[in-house]
């Protein structure tokens, strides 16, 4: 099992450009989510999905779009990159269980710089 | 919404000593409290978690305690080793969708 795979690992964008961060998991997890990590602020939830075809906004959704057409993939789209979106982005997945939330498995991250 | 505060932001201990990191949360509906360890250049990795129906949980050198009334939970690492040096995050969720709200993190340095 590869777990959660994010591509690319590094990316530099110019202000106004768009791009898609890819995330794929091979554990058949129902839940997937995107976080951004900024210095001194921990991780903040951007968007999440509880299953294929279902997405919702997290704490900091502005400037980002997501879709979930399959269980395995959860891409994050930056519509028009801004310097404020310079950050490290993490994708996570976890199974739906009867007892509620459980371990989230994180990818290795994508370091994005917007100039 | 939920707010999670974490202290201290940095912690230095001698090898073999204990380390304690504390978190408070604001949402009384939160019922799942995981702790993650993040090493440089890697994604966070779960080290221990606790649910609101349990007051304490232990796994070898790591333990977590939860006080629902006071809305705080703590991570205890005993007999620290240099490989424990990392950033540690606490988090909270309401138990569905794994919508985690994270603390700001604690940089733990274990000096040998």
Q: Topology of this structure?
A:
The complex is a heterodimer of chains A (115) and B (112).
Chain A: E1 4-7, E2 10-13, E3 19-25, E4 31-37, E5 43-51, E6 54-57, E7 64-66, E8 76-78, E9 87-94, E10 105-106, E11 110-114
Parallel strand pairs in A: 2-11
Antiparallel strand pairs in A: 1-3, 3-8, 4-5, 4-9, 5-6, 7-8, 9-10, 9-11
Chain B: E1 4-7, E2 10-14, E3 19-25, E4 32-38, E5 45-51, E6 56-59, E7 62-67, E8 72-77, E9 86-92, E10 101-102, E11 106-111
Parallel strand pairs in B: 2-11
Antiparallel strand pairs in B: 1-3, 3-8, 4-5, 4-9, 6-7, 7-8, 9-10, 9-11
Description:
The complex is a heterodimer of chains A (115) and B (112). Chain A is built from no helices and eleven strands. Chain A has strands at residues 4-7, 10-13, 19-25, 31-37, 43-51, 54-57, 64-66, 76-78, 87-94, 105-106, 110-114. In chain A, strands 2, 4, 5, 6, 9, 10 and 11 form a seven-stranded mixed sheet that branches. In chain A, 36% of the residues are buried. Chain B has strands at residues 4-7, 10-14, 19-25, 32-38, 45-51, 56-59, 62-67, 72-77, 86-92, 101-102, 106-111. The N and C termini of chain B lie far apart (41 Å). Chains A and B meet through strand 4, strand 5 and strand 9 of A and strand 4, strand 5 and strand 10 of B.
Descriptive tags:
heterodimer; A: 115 residues; mainly beta; seven-stranded mixed β-sheet; four-stranded antiparallel β-sheet; 0% helix; B: 11 strands
Q: What is the average per-residue confidence, as pLDDT of chain A, rounded to a whole number?
A: 96
Report the structural category of chain A.
mainly beta
User: Main sheet of chain B?
Assistant: 6 strands, mixed
The 3D shape of chain A can be described as globular
Oligomer: heterodimer
Parts with pLDDT < 50 across at least 5 consecutive residues of chain B: none
Shape of chain B: globular
Compute the average pLDDT of chain B.
97
Strand count of chain B: 11
The CA-CA distance between the termini of chain B, in Å, is 41 Å
Beta-strand share of residues of chain A? over 45%
Strand content of chain B: over 45%
Taking the alpha carbons of the first and last residues of chain A, their distance comes to 36 Å
The level of helicity of chain B is under 10%
Number of alpha- plus pi-helical segments of chain B: 0
Order of helices and strands of chain A: EEEEEEEEEEE
- Total strands of chain A: 11
Query: Spans of chain A with pLDDT under 50 lasting ≥5 residues?
Result: none
Number of helices of chain A: 0
Q: Using only CA atoms, what is the Rg of chain A?
A: 14 Å
Radius of gyration from the alpha-carbon trace of chain B, in angstroms = 13 Å
